[in-house]
Amino acid sequence: MSAETMLAFETDCHIFSGCGFEAPGLHSFVFEPLFTVGGFEFNKPMLLAFLSTIVVVWFFWAAFGKAKVVPGKLQMIAEAGYDFVRRGLVYDALGKKEGDKYVPFMVSLFFFVWLMNIWSIIPVAQFPVTSVIAFPLGLALVVYVLWLSLTFRKHGFVGGLKNITGYDKSLGWILPLIMVLELAQHLIIRPFTHAVRLFANMFAGHMLILMFTIASWYLLNGVGIIYAGASFVMTLVMTAFELFIQAVQAYVFVLLACNYVQGALAENH
Amino acid sequence: MNALVNMAVEVPENPLIPPIPELVIGLIAFFIVFGFLAKKLLPNINKVLDERRAAIEGGMEKAEAAQAEAQQVLEDYRAQLADARHEAARLRQEAQEQGATLIAEMRAEGQRQREEIIAAGHAQIEADRKQAAQSLRQDVGKLATDLAGKLVGESLEDHARQSRTIDRFLDELESKAAPDATKAEAGR
């Protein structure tokens, strides 16, 4: 095993042994490629992303592949998840009639994001895929394109622009300012925050768990054992907390996607 | 040297700048999920959910129909019961009336028969009395004639005379008896 792929646990670095604490940092989110195909480097987050795909598809295939009118246990669970997104998110934001078209997209989005988050606390994987900005950004861009195309398809070019810029004559002289702000908000800031919200949460969560885990190991020497114990408890607490945050962030990501679609379909305000 | 330092060496990048390969892989991974769910699995489950709803609604419709039928039957039954009660009351009334008329008729009949019997008895008695009177009269006439014949010594074979004599005698007897009877009556 080369030194570059080594984990902190594989070193003998402890407190009081003349060894400095190696805090986790940005480098913790960069992985050596697992293998390289013709210059394309396939790394761990990519593998986990595909594993997410496989798990989600496998789960729904097993549950809905031969769906029955009288459901089995697995189908019941999957139906509950499906219904949660369908009713709790899509129908809520878009209504049943409009919303039905977007249900498959939102359901896929929710479970895919959730799975990518969950890897954070799965042993061996232990890395939230969404803490690499590329993954949430890609999904946010899909939502962005969907929102943009819906806006112009629904309202036409001028109407779409009015919708995006929040055009409202009654605002008077302040209107140009509002229009610039709204334009920037809708076209640039919103997709950015949409992606970064998910990314930053998962990034920070992973960082916290890493921090406490590495600290537990580092403090495991002499009197430091007490602090190591406290740090390990924090690791467990943060892991449980992450389990919650993963679901919440997936939920928020899809909730926002629904809201954006709703905004695209709504009349000018 | 430790491993983390080595790894850190190659990470100068801003974490907000997306690496393109990851972006592409992420999108591919997502669209595979979307493809499976949108094309096959969710239509599958939607069909089943619709079927389930139809089955449940069908069941409810059946239950409603059954309930309506039960209600109908109950109403019919009640109506029949009411009819039967009316009929029974009517029959009882009729029977009572019939019974009353029957009793009245029988009473009238009994009355009539009794009167008939009484009348027949009276007639019989009258006839018997007349016959007795007749036969008595004949016997007395004969007795008297015989007696008179013996006394007179003369044959009173002549019927005309005989009967005339007897009648005269009897008339006398009766006219005598009548004042006697009134006398006797007054004497008491």
Automatic annotation (TrEMBL), chain B:
<dbReference type="InterPro" id="IPR005864">
    <property type="entry name" value="ATP_synth_F0_bsu_bac"/>
</dbReference>
<keyword id="KW-0138">CF(0)</keyword>
<keyword id="KW-0472">Membrane</keyword>
<feature type="transmembrane region" description="Helical">
    <location>
        <begin position="20"/>
        <end position="38"/>
    </location>
</feature>
<feature type="coiled-coil region">
    <location>
        <begin position="60"/>
        <end position="101"/>
    </location>
</feature>
<dbReference type="GO" id="GO:0045259">
    <property type="term" value="C:proton-transporting ATP synthase complex"/>
</dbReference>
<keyword id="KW-0812">Transmembrane</keyword>
<protein>
    <recommendedName>
        <fullName>ATP synthase subunit b</fullName>
    </recommendedName>
</protein>
<dbReference type="InterPro" id="IPR028987">
    <property type="entry name" value="ATP_synth_B-like_membr_sf"/>
</dbReference>
<keyword id="KW-0813">Transport</keyword>
<dbReference type="InterPro" id="IPR002146">
    <property type="entry name" value="ATP_synth_b/b'su_bac/chlpt"/>
</dbReference>
<dbReference type="GO" id="GO:0046933">
    <property type="term" value="F:proton-transporting ATP synthase activity, rotational mechanism"/>
</dbReference>
<keyword id="KW-1133">Transmembrane helix</keyword>
<comment type="function">
    <text>F(1)F(0) ATP synthase produces ATP from ADP in the presence of a proton or sodium gradient. F-type ATPases consist of two structural domains, F(1) containing the extramembraneous catalytic core and F(0) containing the membrane proton channel, linked together by a central stalk and a peripheral stalk. During catalysis, ATP synthesis in the catalytic domain of F(1) is coupled via a rotary mechanism of the central stalk subunits to proton translocation.</text>
</comment>
<dbReference type="Pfam" id="PF00430">
    <property type="entry name" value="ATP-synt_B"/>
</dbReference>
<dbReference type="GO" id="GO:0046961">
    <property type="term" value="F:proton-transporting ATPase activity, rotational mechanism"/>
</dbReference>
<keyword id="KW-0175">Coiled coil</keyword>
<keyword id="KW-1003">Cell membrane</keyword>
<keyword id="KW-0066">ATP synthesis</keyword>
<comment type="function">
    <text>Component of the F(0) channel, it forms part of the peripheral stalk, linking F(1) to F(0).</text>
</comment>
<keyword id="KW-0406">Ion transport</keyword>
<comment type="similarity">
    <text>Belongs to the ATPase B chain family.</text>
</comment>
<dbReference type="InterPro" id="IPR050059">
    <property type="entry name" value="ATP_synthase_B_chain"/>
</dbReference>
<keyword id="KW-0375">Hydrogen ion transport</keyword>
<comment type="subunit">
    <text>F-type ATPases have 2 components, F(1) - the catalytic core - and F(0) - the membrane proton channel. F(1) has five subunits: alpha(3), beta(3), gamma(1), delta(1), epsilon(1). F(0) has three main subunits: a(1), b(2) and c(10-14). The alpha and beta chains form an alternating ring which encloses part of the gamma chain. F(1) is attached to F(0) by a central stalk formed by the gamma and epsilon chains, while a peripheral stalk is formed by the delta and b chains.</text>
</comment>
<dbReference type="GO" id="GO:0005886">
    <property type="term" value="C:plasma membrane"/>
</dbReference>
